[in-house]
Design brief:
The termini are far apart. A hairpin with a 2-residue loop joins β3 and β4. By secondary structure, this protein is mainly alpha-helical. It has 12 helices and 5 strands.
């Protein structure tokens, strides 16, 4: 069989199981150590992106969240026996093929995605399909450590920047300002000029909100459709939050100094992202619970 429990010798069940378990743990340590050593340059590239690009700075918390999720669910995971599954070796080979393509094509994203695929392959190899399948969402969650490829980044950033500019115009006009727009540059009451730069596109908020929503979807005990709705809703909530940030920044440019406005936009607003994402997600969960309870209370009673 490709996947199966570790074999034991008759008459020496306990000693054989102990020996096999230690061998499996040693294999896990060896594979993880080899993975870290082999992908050390790739991990360094990821670290530099997390520290140098605010749009993907939230990626550095993804491994920590994954470890927490594993630890919090350890009791349920221990009920599933670990077993060797050689299909994992095939996944590792595919991961290295993806990595080789990334090296030959000088495409860093492929190398980074191959790292995540290698982790999945090791999990399948040393844990077996039932346990790896139980971990599927956590393993898939690790994809969020990888920044978007350049083309995907540009394809997403430009529409988000356009949307942020349009929503800022709408919000400022609702507040009574006369707004003249030229591209992504706004002029308020013919006095103050505000540029909605690429950094104001809201991609940073979008990545942070998706990570927070995905984490809550793992933690809460709700129907699958509510978890999916929570994850999908992170996108419009992030866009709305970024639009509010742009409007407040424009008001600060108008009412205060450019230093205060820039400090709010890049520092204070950044600190508010995670609490705002958590508050919005929790608010949605409470709303869904209230709607579900209300629908149950209004359901027709059986005879």
């Amino acid at each position: 069989m490709v996947c199966g429990d570790v074999a034991v010798q008759p008459g020496a069940i306990h000693s054989s199981c102990d020996r096999s378990e230690w061998l499996r743990r040693g294999a896990v340590v060896a594979l993880v150590g080899t993975l870290i050593w082999s992908y050390w340059p790739t991990l360094g590239d990821l670290w530099r992106v997390w520290k140098g690009n605010q749009d993907y700075s939230a990626g550095q918390v993804v491994p920590l969240i994954a470890v927490y999720l594993l630890w919090s669910g350890r009791k349920r995971l221990f009920t599933i026996p670990a077993r060797i599954c050689w299909w994992g070796a095939g996944v590792l080979l595919i991961a290295q093929g993806v990595r080789l393509a990334g090296v030959l094509l000088a495409y860093g994203s492929l190398e980074q995605y191959s790292l995540v695929l290698s982790v999945m392959g090791i999990a399948l190899l040393v844990l077996g399909f039932p346990l790896a399948w139980r971990l599927k969402w956590i393993l898939l969650f690790l994809v969020l450590i990888v920044p978007l490829p350049r083309r995907a980044h540009e394809s997403l950033t430009l529409p988000l920047q356009e949307l942020a500019t349009s929503s800022a115009v709408y919000g400022l006009e609702l507040l009574g300002f006369l707004v003249h727009r030229e591209g992504n540059v706004l002029r308020l009451d013919e006095q103050v000029t505000v540029a909605v730069a690429e950094a104001c596109s809201g991609l940073r908020m979008l990545t942070a909100f998706v990570i927070v929503s995905a984490t809550l979807a793992f933690v809460v005990r709700r129907p699958a459709w509510q978890k999916a709705l929570l994850l999908v809703s992170s996108v419009p909530v992030a866009i709305l939050a970024n639009s509010l940030r742009v409007v407040v920044t424009a008001l600060l440019y108008y009412l205060s100094t450019s230093e205060v406005a820039e400090s709010f936009s890049h520092d204070f607003a950044g600190l508010l992202m995670m609490p705002l994402a958590i508050a919005a997600s929790m608010g949605l969960l409470h709303l869904l619970r209230w709607l579900a309870a209300d629908s149950v209370s209004h359901a027709p009673q059986g005879s």
